[in-house]
Amino acid sequence: MGTSTYELRCRECGTTFGNQPSSICTNCFSPLEVTYDYDSIRPRISRDLFASRAPNIWRYRELLPLPAGIEPSLPVGFTPLLSAPRLGEKIGSRKLLVKNDAVCLPTLSFKDRVVAVAIANARSFGFDTVACSSTGNLANAVAAQAARAGLKAWIFIPSDLEPAKILGTQVFGAELVRINGSYDHVNRLCSQIADEHRWGFVNVNLRPYYAEGSKTVGYEIAEQLGWRLPDNIVVPMAGGSLITKIKKAFDELILLGLVDPKPVKFFGAQATGCSPISTAVKQYNTEIEPQRPKTIARSLAIGNPADGHYAIKAISKSGGWSEDVSDPEVISGIQLLAETEGIFTETAGGVTVGCARKLIHHDRILPDETTVLCITGNGLKTTDVLADKYQAEVPIAPKLSEFEAYLASKSAALPATVEETVNASR
Ligand SMILES: *Cc1c(COP(=O)(O)O)cnc(C)c1O
Ligand SMILES: [Zn+2]
């Protein structure tokens, strides 16, 4: 590993490649992953050291691929881990927690974590341009963080993404390329562009570094539980990277003696309209059959997930399971989390809540086990899916008598609760 404590290694044949912008093994064409010299790291870290640092992902810097000489200045991550008793009561869990990345800074999704680590590496590799293929949140995170780092950004998206995610990319001055096709078409194009242009594609040639940023969700959950691991974790899946990296984080904390060893069950969540990973898990397949996505959960709409095979492995080895929910259940999930816990999540969060509800209902998750739901994005980015759910009220005059009449008309016709709506749709 030279003077660095980490380097790239092939996940299948084990060949090492030092540190360079590449993501595929030249021997066997399998994905590369960052591996660490844990023996040299172990004596340099402790719970107290991490706790003494500022509340952001860089407090775990020894466990991230942070190049020498790069000092990140952006406070990303360390989002709240909240107990969710009211949601728990509705869906049947007595020890339910929400990891709330709907308020991750700077762009309100967990993608800020992966981009922060990728950009640190893009700078050390000397790229002046960063790029990505995106289902929306990655676009926002790359555009914002590139602006702050003084890098140029090229963003490639399917043409029909949510307006808020498009605007939330353009505002940072990024070049936005809309592609007529699905995410999988966009991603294939980006692999070809990466071969032609010396650009740092955060999720193509920088992907191994990018993916390590997701581990910080796992470190934070463990630290916020008092350096303990939960019994279960429910994670939304697009490419399948986040779920495998939370698993890696927990395994590392055990290996380094920072938490007591303990089995954690991993549960994957997808939308039925794009469920290649959950379908494979439910059919006991170890490989992915690609799908053509059709769901309102645009941020999860990857039909041919790059880390699908490893996500299946992580889930089945842990004794977990995977579920998927229909678009109406996604919307009910968004409303349920908002009405019970005051958290407004995007469609991916609706998927997570809906799947958790199913997993508990089917006794895959038991009521007295500690269960963490990963809420990964913010509802203000996908308001269009709720457009027909709430009518604009007719305005009234600023008079007490008018209000009293309005109140009387309201109590006459109370709307159905979310729970009644969900039960009716079962
Ligand atoms: C990208 C994304 C995910 C899933 O990430 P993968 O690592 O690709 O599985 C989950 N939630 C949101 C909101 C996302 O944007
Ligand atoms: Zn290999």
Overview of this protein structure:
It is a single chain. The protein is an alpha/beta fold and 426 residues long. It has three domains: 6-74 and 111-210, 3-Layer(aba) Sandwich (Rossmann fold); 81-108 and 214-385, Rossmann fold (3-Layer(aba) Sandwich), CATH 3.40.50; 395-424, no CATH class. It is 39% helix and 15% strand. The chain has 16 helices and 13 strands. A six-stranded mixed β-sheet has the order 4-5-13-10-11-12, with helices on both faces. Strands 8-7-6-9 form a four-stranded parallel β-sheet. A three-stranded antiparallel β-sheet has the order 2-1-3. Strand 6, helix 5 (137-149) and strand 7 (152-158) form a beta-alpha-beta unit. Helix 5 runs parallel beside helix 6 (163-170). It is globular and about 75 Å long. The N and C termini lie far apart (55 Å). It binds pyridoxal-5'-phosphate (PLP) and zinc ion. Zinc ion is lined by residues 10, 12-13, 15, 25, 27-28, 30.
Chain-wise SSE layout:
Layout: E1 6-10, E2 16-18, E3 32-36, H1 38-41, H2 47-52, E4 81-83, H3 85-91, E5 96-100, H4 111-124, E6 129-133, H5 137-149, E7 152-158, H6 163-170, E8 175-179, H7 183-196, E9 200-201, H8 207-212, H9 215-224, E10 232-236, H10 241-255, E11 265-271, H11 276-282, H12 308-318, E12 321-325, H13 327-341, H14 347-361, E13 371-375, H15 400-412, H16 418-425
Parallel strand pairs: 5-13, 6-7, 6-9, 7-8, 10-11, 10-13, 11-12
Antiparallel strand pairs: 1-2, 1-3, 4-5
